[in-house]
Amino acid sequence: MPEGTYLYAVARDVLSQCPDGVADLPVRTISGGPGLVAYVSTVPLDRFGEQPLRRSLEDMDWVAETARAHHRVVDAVAAATATAPVRLVTVYDGDGPVRDLLDRRGQDFLRVLDHVTGRREWGVKAYAVASADGADGQDEPAAATPHAGRPGTAYLQRRRANLRGREQIRRQALQRADHIHRALSALSVAGCRHRAQDPSLSGRHDWMLLNGAYLVDDKREDEFAELARDLGGDGVELRVTGPWAPYSFTVMETR
Amino acid sequence: MRDVVAHERLPPERVALVDLLDRLLAGGVVVTGDLVLSIADVDLVRISLRALIVSIDELEGGGPR
Protein backbone atom coordinates (compact mmCIF):
# COMPACT_ATOMS: atom_id res chain seq x y z
CA MET A 1 0.00 0.00 0.00
CA PRO A 2 1.42 3.45 -0.86
CA GLU A 3 2.41 5.47 2.17
CA GLY A 4 2.84 9.14 3.01
CA THR A 5 4.60 11.08 5.76
CA TYR A 6 2.40 13.11 8.09
CA LEU A 7 4.25 16.06 9.67
CA TYR A 8 3.33 17.30 13.18
CA ALA A 9 6.06 19.64 14.28
CA VAL A 10 9.67 20.71 13.92
CA ALA A 11 12.02 21.09 16.88
CA ARG A 12 15.73 20.93 17.71
CA ASP A 13 15.65 17.94 20.03
CA VAL A 14 14.61 14.31 19.84
CA LEU A 15 12.23 13.10 22.53
CA SER A 16 13.02 9.74 24.05
CA GLN A 17 9.33 8.94 24.11
CA CYS A 18 6.42 10.30 22.13
CA PRO A 19 2.71 9.41 22.27
CA ASP A 20 1.04 7.87 19.23
CA GLY A 21 -0.21 10.21 16.56
CA VAL A 22 -3.04 10.33 14.03
CA ALA A 23 -4.96 7.09 13.50
CA ASP A 24 -3.02 5.71 16.51
CA LEU A 25 0.10 5.43 14.38
CA PRO A 26 3.54 5.58 15.97
CA VAL A 27 5.52 8.81 15.77
CA ARG A 28 9.17 8.93 14.69
CA THR A 29 11.65 11.64 13.84
CA ILE A 30 13.53 12.73 10.74
CA SER A 31 16.72 14.73 11.26
CA GLY A 32 17.93 17.30 8.78
CA GLY A 33 18.87 20.89 8.08
CA PRO A 34 20.83 22.87 10.70
CA GLY A 35 20.18 20.54 13.65
CA LEU A 36 16.46 20.18 13.16
CA VAL A 37 14.12 17.30 13.90
CA ALA A 38 10.77 16.69 12.22
CA TYR A 39 8.15 14.67 14.10
CA VAL A 40 6.25 12.48 11.66
CA SER A 41 4.11 9.36 11.23
CA THR A 42 4.01 7.04 8.26
CA VAL A 43 0.39 7.09 7.08
CA PRO A 44 -1.45 4.93 4.54
CA LEU A 45 -2.44 7.00 1.52
CA ASP A 46 -5.76 5.19 1.18
CA ARG A 47 -6.76 7.24 4.25
CA PHE A 48 -4.33 10.14 4.08
CA GLY A 49 -4.17 10.71 0.35
CA GLU A 50 -5.67 13.80 -1.18
CA GLN A 51 -9.12 12.47 -2.06
CA PRO A 52 -9.76 10.53 1.19
CA LEU A 53 -8.58 13.53 3.19
CA ARG A 54 -10.87 15.91 1.41
CA ARG A 55 -13.76 13.61 2.30
CA SER A 56 -12.59 13.08 5.88
CA LEU A 57 -12.28 16.82 6.48
CA GLU A 58 -16.05 17.05 5.96
CA ASP A 59 -16.56 14.72 8.90
CA MET A 60 -16.47 16.63 12.17
CA ASP A 61 -15.86 13.49 14.23
CA TRP A 62 -12.84 12.63 12.12
CA VAL A 63 -11.56 16.19 12.36
CA ALA A 64 -11.99 16.16 16.16
CA GLU A 65 -10.19 12.87 16.57
CA THR A 66 -7.38 13.87 14.24
CA ALA A 67 -6.99 17.30 15.83
CA ARG A 68 -6.67 15.72 19.27
CA ALA A 69 -4.11 13.20 18.05
CA HIS A 70 -2.10 15.94 16.31
CA HIS A 71 -2.27 18.04 19.47
CA ARG A 72 -1.22 15.12 21.68
CA VAL A 73 2.03 14.83 19.74
CA VAL A 74 2.69 18.58 19.48
CA ASP A 75 1.90 19.04 23.17
CA ALA A 76 4.32 16.29 24.22
CA VAL A 77 7.12 17.75 22.12
CA ALA A 78 6.40 21.31 23.26
CA ALA A 79 6.42 20.25 26.91
CA ALA A 80 10.02 19.11 26.43
CA THR A 81 11.56 21.56 23.99
CA ALA A 82 10.95 24.64 21.82
CA THR A 83 8.58 23.55 19.08
CA ALA A 84 7.18 24.84 15.81
CA PRO A 85 3.84 23.06 15.35
CA VAL A 86 2.77 22.42 11.78
CA ARG A 87 -0.81 23.08 10.75
CA LEU A 88 -3.28 20.21 10.92
CA VAL A 89 -3.11 17.67 8.09
CA THR A 90 0.18 18.21 6.27
CA VAL A 91 1.08 15.05 4.37
CA TYR A 92 4.18 14.47 2.25
CA ASP A 93 4.96 11.88 -0.34
CA GLY A 94 7.56 10.12 1.80
CA ASP A 95 10.44 11.32 4.00
CA GLY A 96 12.54 12.82 1.22
CA PRO A 97 10.47 15.99 0.82
CA VAL A 98 10.46 16.50 4.63
CA ARG A 99 14.25 16.29 4.76
CA ASP A 100 14.35 18.66 1.83
CA LEU A 101 12.09 21.10 3.70
CA LEU A 102 14.39 21.06 6.75
CA ASP A 103 17.38 21.74 4.50
CA ARG A 104 15.83 24.49 2.41
CA ARG A 105 14.01 26.32 5.20
CA GLY A 106 16.31 25.49 8.09
CA GLN A 107 17.14 29.09 8.93
CA ASP A 108 13.46 30.06 8.98
CA PHE A 109 12.68 27.20 11.35
CA LEU A 110 15.58 28.19 13.61
CA ARG A 111 14.30 31.75 13.71
CA VAL A 112 10.82 30.57 14.67
CA LEU A 113 12.22 28.22 17.33
CA ASP A 114 14.39 30.99 18.81
CA HIS A 115 11.33 33.20 19.02
CA VAL A 116 9.39 30.68 21.13
CA THR A 117 12.24 29.36 23.29
CA GLY A 118 11.53 29.86 26.99
CA ARG A 119 8.02 31.04 26.22
CA ARG A 120 4.58 29.52 26.16
CA GLU A 121 1.27 30.47 24.65
CA TRP A 122 -1.71 31.36 26.83
CA GLY A 123 -5.25 31.88 25.64
CA VAL A 124 -7.53 34.50 27.14
CA LYS A 125 -11.19 34.59 26.22
CA ALA A 126 -13.43 37.43 27.36
CA TYR A 127 -17.22 37.22 27.53
CA ALA A 128 -19.83 39.83 28.29
CA VAL A 129 -21.82 38.43 31.21
CA ALA A 130 -24.54 39.50 33.59
CA SER A 131 -23.40 42.44 35.66
CA ALA A 132 -24.18 42.76 39.36
CA ASP A 133 -27.75 43.99 38.89
CA GLY A 134 -28.58 40.98 36.77
CA ALA A 135 -29.01 42.88 33.54
CA ASP A 136 -27.59 40.67 30.95
CA GLY A 137 -27.88 41.64 27.34
CA GLN A 138 -28.29 38.17 26.04
CA ASP A 139 -31.83 37.43 27.16
CA GLU A 140 -33.50 40.67 26.36
CA PRO A 141 -37.18 40.32 25.61
CA ALA A 142 -37.85 40.38 21.90
CA ALA A 143 -38.55 43.91 20.72
CA ALA A 144 -42.24 44.48 20.20
CA THR A 145 -43.29 44.97 16.62
CA PRO A 146 -45.06 48.22 15.85
CA HIS A 147 -48.31 46.31 15.46
CA ALA A 148 -48.14 44.56 18.80
CA GLY A 149 -48.70 47.57 21.01
CA ARG A 150 -49.61 51.18 20.36
CA PRO A 151 -46.94 52.71 18.20
CA GLY A 152 -47.20 56.01 20.03
CA THR A 153 -44.54 58.67 20.17
CA ALA A 154 -43.55 57.71 23.68
CA TYR A 155 -42.98 54.16 22.64
CA LEU A 156 -40.85 55.17 19.67
CA GLN A 157 -38.78 57.48 21.82
CA ARG A 158 -38.26 54.77 24.38
CA ARG A 159 -37.32 52.38 21.66
CA ARG A 160 -34.87 54.82 20.13
CA ALA A 161 -33.27 55.53 23.50
CA ASN A 162 -33.13 51.83 24.10
CA LEU A 163 -31.34 51.24 20.81
CA ARG A 164 -28.92 54.08 21.50
CA GLY A 165 -28.24 52.61 24.91
CA ARG A 166 -27.61 49.23 23.45
CA GLU A 167 -25.27 50.63 20.81
CA GLN A 168 -23.38 52.41 23.57
CA ILE A 169 -23.11 49.22 25.61
CA ARG A 170 -21.84 47.44 22.53
CA ARG A 171 -19.22 50.09 21.89
CA GLN A 172 -18.09 50.11 25.50
CA ALA A 173 -17.77 46.34 25.53
CA LEU A 174 -15.61 46.42 22.39
CA GLN A 175 -13.41 49.12 23.90
CA ARG A 176 -13.07 47.06 27.03
CA ALA A 177 -11.94 44.09 24.93
CA ASP A 178 -9.37 46.27 23.14
CA HIS A 179 -8.10 47.48 26.48
CA ILE A 180 -7.79 43.94 27.85
CA HIS A 181 -5.97 42.82 24.71
CA ARG A 182 -3.54 45.75 24.86
CA ALA A 183 -2.81 45.21 28.54
CA LEU A 184 -2.15 41.50 28.09
CA SER A 185 -0.07 42.12 24.96
CA ALA A 186 2.07 44.64 26.84
CA LEU A 187 3.09 41.94 29.28
CA SER A 188 3.72 39.42 26.51
CA VAL A 189 6.33 38.94 23.83
CA ALA A 190 3.53 38.90 21.26
CA GLY A 191 -0.26 38.81 21.20
CA CYS A 192 -2.85 38.07 18.57
CA ARG A 193 -6.61 37.84 18.32
CA HIS A 194 -8.37 34.82 16.91
CA ARG A 195 -11.86 35.13 15.52
CA ALA A 196 -14.64 35.03 18.08
CA GLN A 197 -15.83 31.47 18.44
CA ASP A 198 -19.10 30.32 17.00
CA PRO A 199 -21.55 29.53 19.84
CA SER A 200 -22.69 26.39 18.03
CA LEU A 201 -19.16 25.03 18.40
CA SER A 202 -18.21 26.47 21.77
CA GLY A 203 -21.61 25.78 23.36
CA ARG A 204 -21.39 29.14 25.05
CA HIS A 205 -23.86 31.82 24.07
CA ASP A 206 -22.51 34.80 25.94
CA TRP A 207 -21.12 37.42 23.64
CA MET A 208 -17.44 36.70 23.08
CA LEU A 209 -15.54 39.97 23.19
CA LEU A 210 -12.04 38.64 22.84
CA ASN A 211 -10.41 35.40 21.74
CA GLY A 212 -6.79 36.27 22.38
CA ALA A 213 -3.51 34.36 22.35
CA TYR A 214 -0.35 35.58 24.05
CA LEU A 215 3.23 34.42 23.94
CA VAL A 216 4.56 34.84 27.47
CA ASP A 217 8.06 34.47 28.90
CA ASP A 218 8.12 31.55 31.34
CA LYS A 219 9.26 33.79 34.17
CA ARG A 220 6.36 36.22 33.66
CA GLU A 221 3.60 33.60 33.75
CA ASP A 222 2.50 34.40 37.30
CA GLU A 223 2.40 38.08 36.50
CA PHE A 224 0.36 37.34 33.39
CA ALA A 225 -2.15 35.20 35.31
CA GLU A 226 -2.49 37.91 37.92
CA LEU A 227 -3.09 40.58 35.31
CA ALA A 228 -5.75 38.41 33.64
CA ARG A 229 -7.42 38.07 37.02
CA ASP A 230 -7.40 41.82 37.56
CA LEU A 231 -8.77 42.63 34.13
CA GLY A 232 -11.93 40.57 34.58
CA GLY A 233 -15.07 41.48 36.48
CA ASP A 234 -17.60 44.26 36.07
CA GLY A 235 -19.62 42.51 33.39
CA VAL A 236 -16.68 40.77 31.74
CA GLU A 237 -15.66 37.23 32.46
CA LEU A 238 -12.19 36.14 31.46
CA ARG A 239 -11.15 32.58 30.89
CA VAL A 240 -7.50 31.67 30.65
CA THR A 241 -6.48 28.54 28.74
CA GLY A 242 -3.11 26.98 28.46
CA PRO A 243 -0.27 26.65 28.48
CA TRP A 244 -0.39 25.87 24.79
CA ALA A 245 2.33 24.93 22.37
CA PRO A 246 3.03 28.19 20.51
CA TYR A 247 0.55 27.50 17.71
CA SER A 248 -0.46 31.11 17.26
CA PHE A 249 3.11 32.42 17.06
CA THR A 250 4.74 30.07 14.63
CA VAL A 251 2.73 30.97 11.59
CA MET A 252 5.08 30.77 8.68
CA GLU A 253 4.17 30.12 5.09
CA THR A 254 6.68 27.97 3.37
CA ARG A 255 7.11 25.96 0.21
CA MET B 1 -20.61 35.38 43.02
CA ARG B 2 -19.38 34.29 39.67
CA ASP B 3 -15.75 33.43 39.16
CA VAL B 4 -14.39 36.08 36.87
CA VAL B 5 -11.29 34.16 35.96
CA ALA B 6 -11.44 30.46 35.57
CA HIS B 7 -8.27 28.75 34.67
CA GLU B 8 -8.54 25.96 32.13
CA ARG B 9 -5.32 24.05 32.54
CA LEU B 10 -6.28 20.77 31.02
CA PRO B 11 -4.57 17.62 29.83
CA PRO B 12 -4.48 17.41 26.02
CA GLU B 13 -7.43 15.02 25.80
CA ARG B 14 -9.67 17.45 27.67
CA VAL B 15 -8.78 20.68 25.92
CA ALA B 16 -11.89 22.20 24.34
CA LEU B 17 -12.01 21.22 20.68
CA VAL B 18 -13.02 24.71 19.63
CA ASP B 19 -9.96 26.26 21.32
CA LEU B 20 -7.78 23.65 19.73
CA LEU B 21 -9.19 24.20 16.24
CA ASP B 22 -8.65 27.96 16.56
CA ARG B 23 -4.98 27.13 16.80
CA LEU B 24 -4.68 24.12 14.56
CA LEU B 25 -6.45 25.79 11.66
CA ALA B 26 -5.12 29.33 12.01
CA GLY B 27 -1.71 28.79 13.60
CA GLY B 28 1.43 26.83 13.04
CA VAL B 29 3.69 26.40 10.09
CA VAL B 30 1.82 26.22 6.81
CA VAL B 31 3.49 24.27 4.09
CA THR B 32 2.38 24.38 0.51
CA GLY B 33 3.91 22.98 -2.61
CA ASP B 34 5.41 19.54 -2.82
CA LEU B 35 2.80 17.70 -0.82
CA VAL B 36 0.17 15.05 -0.99
CA LEU B 37 -2.12 17.48 0.76
CA SER B 38 -1.91 20.48 3.03
CA ILE B 39 -4.84 22.13 4.71
CA ALA B 40 -3.81 25.26 2.83
CA ASP B 41 -4.82 23.50 -0.37
CA VAL B 42 -8.28 22.59 0.85
CA ASP B 43 -11.24 24.78 0.13
CA LEU B 44 -12.10 25.31 3.78
CA VAL B 45 -15.36 26.99 2.97
CA ARG B 46 -16.73 23.65 1.89
CA ILE B 47 -15.75 21.55 4.84
CA SER B 48 -17.70 21.07 8.02
CA LEU B 49 -15.56 23.59 9.84
CA ARG B 50 -17.10 26.44 7.94
CA ALA B 51 -18.88 27.64 11.06
CA LEU B 52 -15.58 27.95 12.85
CA ILE B 53 -13.86 29.84 10.13
CA VAL B 54 -16.90 31.61 8.92
CA SER B 55 -15.08 34.60 7.56
CA ILE B 56 -12.46 32.74 5.58
CA ASP B 57 -14.36 33.39 2.37
CA GLU B 58 -14.66 37.05 3.25
CA LEU B 59 -10.93 37.20 3.77
CA GLU B 60 -10.22 35.40 0.57
CA GLY B 61 -13.01 36.99 -1.36
CA GLY B 62 -14.64 33.91 -2.77
CA GLY B 63 -16.83 30.93 -2.13
CA PRO B 64 -20.57 30.67 -1.95
CA ARG B 65 -22.16 31.05 1.45
Brief overview:
Chain A is of the alpha+beta class and 255 residues long. Chain A is built from eight helices and ten strands.
Layout of SSEs?
The complex is a heterodimer of chains A (255) and B (65).
Chain A (H helix, E strand, L loop, with lengths): L2 E9 L16 E5 L3 E9 H4 L1 H7 L3 H21 L2 E3 L4 E3 L3 H9 L1 H11 L2 E10 L24 H34 L3 E4 L5 H4 L4 E11 L3 H11 L4 E9 L7 E3 L1
Antiparallel strand pairs in A: 1-3, 1-4, 1-5, 2-3, 6-8, 6-9, 7-8
Chain B lengths: L4 E4 L8 H10 L2 E3 L5 E2 L17 H5 L5
Give a structural overview.
The complex is a heterodimer of chains A (255) and B (65). By secondary structure, chain A is an alpha+beta fold. Chain A is built from eight helices and ten strands. Chain A folds into two domains: 3-116, no CATH class; 119-249, no CATH class. In chain A, 40% of the residues lie in helices and 26% in strands. Mean pLDDT of chain A is 89; it is low at 133-144. Chain B has one domain. Chain B has two helices and three strands, in the order βαββα. Chain B has helices at residues 17-26, 56-60; strands spanning 5-8, 29-31, 37-38. The termini of chain B are far apart. Classes of the chains: A alpha+beta (255), B alpha+beta (65). Chain A: Its main location: other.
Strand content of chain B: 5-15%
> If helices are DSSP runs of H or I spanning 4 or more residues, what is the number of helices of chain B?
2
Distance separating the two termini of chain B:
42 Å
Shape of chain A: elongated
User: Which regions of chain B are unreliable across 5 or more consecutive residues at pLDDT < 50?
Assistant: 51-65
Residue stretches of chain A low in confidence (pLDDT < 50, at least 5 long) are 133-144
Q: What is the number of beta strands of chain A?
A: 10
What fraction, in percent, of the residue positions of chain A are helical? 25-40%
Mean pLDDT, all residues of chain A: 89
Q: Specify the structural class of chain A.
A: alpha+beta
| Number of helices in the DSSP assignment of chain A | 8
How would you describe the shape of chain B? elongated
How far is it from the N-terminal to the C-terminal residue of chain A, by CA? 27 Å
The interface involving the most residues is between:
A-B, 72 and 47 residues
Structure classification of chain B: alpha+beta
Organism (chain B): Nonomuraea maritima
Subcellular location (chain B): Gas vesicle
Family (chain B): Belongs to the gas vesicle GvpA family.
Protein name (chain B): Gas vesicle protein
